[in-house]
Design a protein that fits this description.
Homodimer. With 251 residues, the protein is of the alpha/beta class. It has one domain: TIM Barrel, CATH 3.20.20.70. It contains 12 helices and 8 strands. Bound molecules: glyceraldehyde-3-phosphate. The site of glyceraldehyde-3-phosphate has 14 residues, from strand 8.
């Protein structure tokens, strides 16, 4: 089901206390503001999941930022999809460029994580996006298409219907350089066309495709006005309740 979604990704920020406080502030704002049919998601570090789920009401979904690529067992330091599910969380952010780059997450690993996420009734927020060199070499469409195909096209149409996509041009993440509204729309339309080819119009038109990369209250409205931009995956600006709220209300 295509929904407008604004998802925060706290990355590796906030102690447990700080996270509970921030989640409470966001929840208060969400509860007391008229929100135009937008699903709000908070992506926290693992240690916050249980407590943040207790703090937020029904209008906010909680996301983990990763999960293990195995079900359970002797994998020291890992957190499984079923463990995430048991905290009351609803989403798992997968394939973020920081995980692909710093932790060697390959499409093969991501396929396992996507499958485990779905098997446990969680929705993957699956990240895709090119680096600057790939855009400059005009390979960005090819790169994004192959990330989607290799990470997700093993899914049936029904399974794919539970996936949220997040297009995050790597050159725009945390840099203050946002993709222009035209660049975002061009890529999102391309992604939707790619989904039409694989799954048909209905699935493609029902898929939420979020934009991520230096999205702020000041530029969110322009980005979200595009026909194929269904919301945002927000890093830095999700760490301040007012800024995050400014993005949510940009719709
Ligand atoms: O997951 C979020 C993205 O990496 C965007 O981060 P940013 O808003 O700080 O650029």
């Amino acid at each position: 089901m295509r929904r407008k979604i604004v998802a925060g990704n706290w990355k590796m920020n906030n102690t447990l206390e700080e996270g509970i406080e921030l989640a409470g502030q966001i929840n208060d704002l969400v509860e007391n503001t008229e929100i135009n049919d937008v699903d709000v998601v908070i992506g926290t570090p693992f240690i916050h999941l249980t407590e943040v789920n207790k703090v937020v009401g029904e209008k906010i979904g909680v996301a983990a930022q990763n999960c293990a690529d195995e079900k359970s067992g002797a994998y020291t330091g890992e957190i499984s999809a079923s463990m995430i599910k048991s905290t009351g969380s609803k989403y798992v952010i997968l394939g973020h460029s920081e995980r692909r780059t710093y932790y060697g997450e390959t499409n093969e690993i991501l396929v396992k994580k996507v499958n485990l996420t779905l098997e446990n009734g969680l929705a993957p927020i699956f990240c895709i996006g090119e680096v600057l060199e790939e855009r400059e070499a005009e390979k960005h469409f090819e790169v994004v298409k192959s990330q989607i195909a290799e990470g997700l096209f093993h899914l049936s149409a029904e399974e794919f219907g539970k996936v949220v996509l997040a297009y995050e041009p790597v050159w725009a993440i945390g840099t203050g350089v946002t993709a222009s509204s035209d660049q975002a729309q061009e890529m999102h339309a391309f992604i939707r066309k790619t989904l039409v080819e694989q799954y048909g119009e209905e699935v493609a038109n029902n898929t939420s495709i979020l934009y991520g990369g230096s999205c702020k209250p000041s530029n969110a409205k322009e980005l979200f006005e595009n026909a194929d931009v269904d919301g945002g995956l927000i890093g830095g600006a999700s760490l301040k309740a007012e800024d995050f709220m400014g993005i949510i209300t940009a719709f």
